Amino acid sequence: MESIRLFSMSGLFVLTLVALMIPASIGRGWQRCRFPAIYNFGDSNSDTGACNAAVAEIPSPYGQTFFKQPSGRASDGRLIIDFLAENLGLPYLSAYLDSIGTNFRHGANFATGGSCIQPACGYSPFNLATQVSQFIHFKARTTALYNQLCLNRKIPAHCIDLPRPDDFSKAMYTLDIGHNDLAYGYLQHRAEGRIRASIPNMLTLFCQAVHVLYSEGARIFWIHNMDPIGCLPFSVMMYQPKAHNVDRNGCVMPQNEMAKEFNRQLKDKVSQLRTQLPSAAFTYIDVYSAKYALISDAKQQGFVDPRTFCCGSYGHHGHHVDCGKKVNGTVYGSSCRYPSRHISWDGIHFTEAANLWVANRTLNGFFSDPPVSIDKACHRPQL
User: Fold this and answer.
1) Looking at residue 293, what is its pLDDT?
2) Integer CA distances (angstroms), 62 to 78, 162, 345, in order
3) Do residues 379 and 366 make contact, with C-beta atoms less than 8 angstroms apart?
4) Which of 120, 113, 91, 117 shows the shortest CA–CA distance to 104?
5) CA distance 65 to 120
6) What's the pLDDT score for residue 101?
């Protein structure tokens, strides 16, 4: 049996095939998990339409690659959460805040673009605690409706879109949030020491949200860590880093170090949650390492310079044109000809091609703790 190992060589992450890294006891003989639903909490990395429905339109050319029209996603196509749903044989998640054409039979998406863990972030009113409150309301209302309308009779047409009450404890609960908390700190020109000092409070709030979800019956958690935010083209352009603050891939090192500190503390918190909530299964996903590996090896993987982006532009004197921006009916923030060759779609979010690359390397357990694939995440390994 073989696995993928990630290691650092002078700052460059390299993927290499090595001998057994995954304990033989983990996953062997386990049956594939049958998740009836997914409930997701997060920001624009996993928002499938909430921000578009409730805050501001996400215009064309967003969605052009896969959906052929704007889909409420901050990308040209599918997100990692979409590939996760595909892998589990479930439909794409409907946004909780989108009332048009929604189907919640197999879960709901509470992620909203701009959301933070902390309530006073400044980007969005839908912080993590608010999203969890929305879930509690959703669970109570749909359970009441199902019990009232759908029990002890042939299920009528209007029951098809409702989740089954028993499925809440069998569903997967995914969390991918925190990026905007750090980004907002930098935007407010806060000292790095202040930003670093705020991380414990962020993670206290994060753990409180997990405990509330657990009290509502959640038992299977799939938790993404922080992206390498210093590698975002927008970060590189906005903060115009000096040469000594940039690594060999052009990423802003102080921002990446802050992300790594958040991830270190998050991983510790997940370990504590395993002890506090022994009936739950927690999988911690090192998205940082997966994305940094792609950025480091972009050319060999068929991508262009990861510091460039496909849609929108950033000209002289710091003039930024948003992707899809219209002026007097004319679209100025148009997309590039070949989105699949770019890692970054709009300077902040990944293209579908990059999301697929990362999904293929995170859903299989190579970047997970414990190292289990998504379809085995319902099991609690005895390490």
Assistant:
1) 98
2) 10, 29, 9
3) no
4) 91
5) 35
6) 82
Tens digits of per-residue pLDDT, 192-251? 999 999 999 999 999 999 999 999 999 999 999 999 999 999 998 887 767 689 999 999
Question: Are residues 178 and 44 in contact, defined by beta-carbon separation less than 8 angstroms?
Answer: no
Q: Residue 306 in contact with residue 249, Cβ under 8 Å?
A: yes
pLDDT, the chain, mean: 89
Q: 251: which residues sit within 8 A by CB, 6+ positions away?
A: 228, 230, 231, 236, 292, 295
Q: Which residues are catalytic?
A: 44, 346, 349
Q: Tokens 């409150």 identify what position?
A: 133
The model's pLDDT over 101-112, given as tens digits with 9 standing for 90+, comes to: 889 999 999 999
Rounded to an integer, what is the distance from CA 102 to the centroid of its chain?
A: 21
State yes or no: pLDDT of 113 exceeds 60. yes
Q: Which amino acid appears at position 373 of this protein?
A: S
Pairing of the two strands 320-321 and 313-314: antiparallel
Residue 129, CA distances (Å) to 39, 125, 323 in order: 14, 10, 30
Alpha helices in the chain (DSSP H): 50-54, 80-87, 128-149, 179-187, 192-215, 233-239, 253-276, 287-296, 352-362
**Count of residues in the chain:** 383
Give counts: helices (H), strands (E), the chain: 9, 12
How many Cβ atoms sit within 10 Å of the Cβ of residue 140?
A: 11
The type of residue at 12 is: L
Confidence of residue 329 (pLDDT cuts 50, 70, 90): low
- The pTM of the full predicted model, rounded to 2 decimals, is 0.91
Is the peptide bond between 61 and the residue preceding it cis, with omega within 30 degrees of 0? Answer: yes
Ordered structural domains, the chain, with CATH: 38-376 (3.40.50.1110)
The burial of 362, by beta-carbon neighbours within 10 Å (0-12 exposed, 13-18 middle, 19 or more buried), is given as buried
Token pair, residue 124, equals 């969005």
